[in-house]
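User: Can you help me understand a structure? I only have the sequence.
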Amino acid sequence: MKTQVLIVGAGPTGLMMACQLQRWGIDLIIIDDKETTTNQSRALAVQARSVEIFRQMGMADKAVKHGRKAKALNLVVKDKVRGHIAFEGFGEGLSPYPYLLMLEQNKNEELLNEYLGEHEVNVLWKHALLSFTDNTNDITAIVKDAEGKNIEIQARYIIGADGAKSLVRHQLDMPFEGATYENVFFVADTKVHWKLPQDDISIIISTKTFSAFFPMEGESRYRVVGTMPEKFTDDGSVKFEDIQDTVKMQTDVPVSFSDTSWFSIYRVHHRVVQEFRRGNVFLTGDAAHVHSPVGAQGMNTGLQDAYNLAWKMAWVLKGIAGEALLNSYNEERHRIAKLLVQSTDRAFSIVISPSPWGKFFKFHILPFMAPILMRLTAFKTMMFKFVSQIAVKYPKSSLSCGRSGKLRAGTRFPYFHCLADDGTSSESFDFFKETGIYLITYNIPDVELKLNAELNIFQFSIPFNETNKNALKEIGFGDSFVCVVRPDTYIGYIGDKYEAEAIQNYLSKQLYIKG
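Assistant: Let's start by predicting it. Here is the structure, written out as tokens:
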């Protein structure tokens, strides 16, 4: 078998990689040793930035319909809500999806797999990677198929999206640097019967344990996460029914459980590989980085890895850009992964700390300060940007050039409402419906770019009127600007005026676009 890209692993990251490559018309094979998509909920939340990707794929409405919007966060101490943080209007004006969407991993996988099926791409289930060889110009992989036979697949590139125990990473003999927390945790998808609001996330701060309750689809259904009671082992034989009485006692909140559909015991790791690319091999998602569950960042970061890499790989395979463009994947995403591991590690360490200071912070500072801070617009905006991942940026990337007003290249193109000359209103994200590159101007005379014939360019001129002027000024744009926006909707080039030579140099020398 021969293909352009072999993707190993059909979890959320691998499926997203396949979807994005399909949008560019790239030939691919995606394999997984499972029988089908997971039937376990696993990762629970889809952040706004991920839903924005779904929008570009035409599936955001479906994702929102299948999910559940969390309405608030409760910090509960000794059976009393000591802090209540309402999510209403949390990210209003910052994204088309200004909320936290509870959409379990299995539903996420089903949506992405369904998208592939609609576009005539089928996952090869029950196909396991055995080994591969990087031949400099391509990859030769040996795969055991569903019938147990060994088959050979030749591909230009191989993508390791095969999770924290990645065979692709192990075969490269890449160190997975980091550590494992001492605490043992449990996760259960179950019905919860108590007095707290069903649509709220509730964090229970107890002297004996830490636990969190996340609303799921279905009446009274929650994802419950907590520290494993010490008297139980983690040898795999324990069921939730065995520990639930202890959990109830340690929670300090009157609660009961029923109809548990999934239970697992696990340890939390924080690790990052040294490099996301080696030759023709690329690592994505949990194969490249794992971290604590704080902020529901894991699955979403994997989706962003795929979104960042896919267009670059497609450009190289289609002859649009030179091979050097692919080096920017490691340059951009490795830094983000390290920052994420560091930030979630600090937050998680505080949450589980048994020290006197840690307990004092959890019981006496966090429940009272968090609601006060969340009433401050600037703090709330900062938190939403971080948690939703719309704050992810690449200002120091070799693909970023220029600034306008307060906005630098490397930032996600902002979300705002745009008023047309005929009085109709649209959203800035309406610009980004097709695969290509985008030239967006404001208060700039007509411009024209000459690009590789294989690459679509979509040009948009934002009308010059008082409404748009105020909206752009509030965001931080200058009085006029010209933007070259990458396929992943990050600003690649930005300037206050149109300079044809500078833009053409950017396209050829920084994006490696061939003439």
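Now, to help you interpret it: Residues 374 and 380 are 5 Å apart (CA to CA). The longest strand covers residues 176-193. Let me know which part you'd like to focus on.
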